[in-house]
Amino acid sequence: MSEENTTPNSEQNLESNSPETASQDLTKDLEQMTLTAQRALADLTNFKQQVARERQVMGQMAQVKVLELFFPVIDNFNLAVSQTPENISSESWYKGIESIHRMLNKITVDMGLTAIPNDKLDSNLHEVISVIPGEKDVIIQTLEQGYLLGEKVIRPSKVVVGSGE
After folding, report:
1. Residue 120's pLDDT is what?
2. pTM for the complete prediction?
3. DSSP string of 7-76, one letter each residue
4. Which of 2, 107, 128, 129 is spaced 20 to 30 A from 20 at the CA atom?
5. Rounded CA gap, 81 and 40, in Å?
């Protein structure tokens, strides 16, 4: 036997087979290559989608980090505005501070940050810091405002609730 016959390849098969068999072999090869190409294309599409999801998550994480840095500023502005004496609130310099406060609130809202409503106790949204005499599970005081980014809790509200006594 010659070496040519012991190592079959597609060229040798074409020479030794009939045109119909060769055509069938080529059709099978084409189908196999088509399936391989389709799988590779599907893998590429899945990879692109995964990268897009990861990029979105990383963007949200960065946004949360920036917002967390601003929480003390927001808290202090809210406290300053809420504790302003009446005789100062009509001063022009104070109106500038109020304007900055509104701009800061608008920026946070535009970024998707919303204040957690503190009208009804919800263990998913509130952290109970203290319990004092009062109507049971009713929020009596908010010590630190909590925030949501979309539907995700970024910081729970720290509250004082009634004990039911």
Report:
1. 86
2. 0.66
3. S--HHHHHHHS-HHHHHHHHHHHHHHHHHHHHHHHHHHHHHHHHHHHHHHHHHHHHHHHHHHHHHHHHHH
4. 2
5. 60
Weakest-pLDDT range from 8-12, 60-64, 70-74: 8-12
Compute the C-alpha angle 29/24/28, nearest 5°: 25
Which CATH topology does 114-165 take? Nucleotide Exchange Factor Grpe; Chain A, domain 2 (2.30.22)
The distance from CA 3 to its chain's CA centroid, rounded to whole angstroms, is 64
Cα distance between residue 35 and residue 41, in whole Å: 10
Nearest of 68, 35, 118 to residue 128 by alpha carbon: 118
* β-sheet with 126-136: strand ranges across: 126-136, 157-162, 139-144
Let me know the angle formed at the C-alpha of 67 by 99 and 61, rounded to the nearest 5 degrees.
Answer: 150
The residue length of the chain stands at 165
